[in-house]
Each structure stands twice: as C-alpha cells, then as structure tokens.
Request: fold
Amino acid sequence: MNTTSSLWILGIVLGAAVIAWGVVGTQTAAPIDETTVVTEPEVVDEADVSVGTVGDQCIVIATPLKHLELLDPIYSEKAVFVDDQIMIAFHVPLTEEGVAKSELAFQLENRSHDVIAVVWDRCSIQLPGADTVNVMHEEMAYDERMAPTPLTSVAPGGFLLDTVVPVSEVCYSDEGWYVTNDILDNGPFLFVLAVEVEDPCCPERQIEYYTFRFVIR
Reply:
C-alpha cells in the first residue's frame, strides 16, 4: 500500500472518530422536574391495616388494635405497675382477627433485695362474667391444669416472663387442647397475683396479694 492510500484511510478513521465524539458529547441528561415531591409512606402503629375501594379509588383503612389497660390499683394505659418490691407489665395476646385470647401474659421484675416467689395455687382470675377461677401458667401441661403447682422463685433483680390462663378456658376437642378467645374483652376482669416475700417483722415468709383490674379497649 502506498503512502497516499494510507493517508486517505487514516483521514477516514479520524473523521469517523470526530463524528462519534460529537454525538456523545451532545447527549445531555433528562431535565429534573423540581416540582416532583417524594414522600415516605405513612406508618400506622398498632393498627390493623386493610385496603378497600371507593368507586375507582383505592383507600387504606386503619383500625386501631385492642390494647390492655390497668384500672386498679393504679391507672396505667400501658398496663404497668411498680412498687418497692415488683415491677410488672401485662399484655393480652390477640388472634389474627384482633380478638383477645383468654391469656394474660406478663413480665415480672423483682425489685427487692430478697428472693420472691409466685404462689400459683393462690393466684386467680375473675372473668368479666364475675366467675372466679384458678389459673395455670405456661410451664404446665393442659391436662395437668388442676394439679398443685410448685412456686416459681425470682432472684433479686431477676425477671420472670410467663402467661396465665383461666382453667375454665382450657378446652379439649377432637383436634386436641385449645384455649378459648373473646372472653377477656367482654368487660373488666381481675387478676390476683400471690407473691411470697420476706417480712422483717415475721420469722416466716409471708404471702402478699396484688389485685389488678383490667379492661381491654
């Protein structure tokens, strides 16, 4: 190939490169619409959220979930009680449909300087219909719900997480054991907690009774 032909080929290549660079350089990003506002979705806390339609519009319906309130011996919207010996927070589990289970869960903290013990056989629940029944706790088998129950000791500064169930609401069917629902949310109900404590005035340990009155709203 002679020198003239080489120069022609080199000119063609350089020309193509210049044209390509010009096309790329003239491309610009799409303009940003500054009027567009991006918002975070609203978070509904402690609510049952469902989606419905009105005409051709889609709407979100938020129904607040039921919650437990302590009425006595003090009022607490969060169902928490504190004194010199214990701090206890209560909770009623709900079904997927938002119905209260016949269970009362709690977390108990020993705030004293001595060991305390929950005396399960002295505990009871007065249901909304005024019937007072014994309770079982989660360490017991359903078919042993009427048997004597050992005490549960809690060390100073220790915690106890447990759940009590009225023995009248433990049932059996062909599918096995189950706990009823929709009982505790029929009105105010009481829970009597029996705690064995040290008494500096007595040589023997004493049983102290706490009576809690609740309502589910």
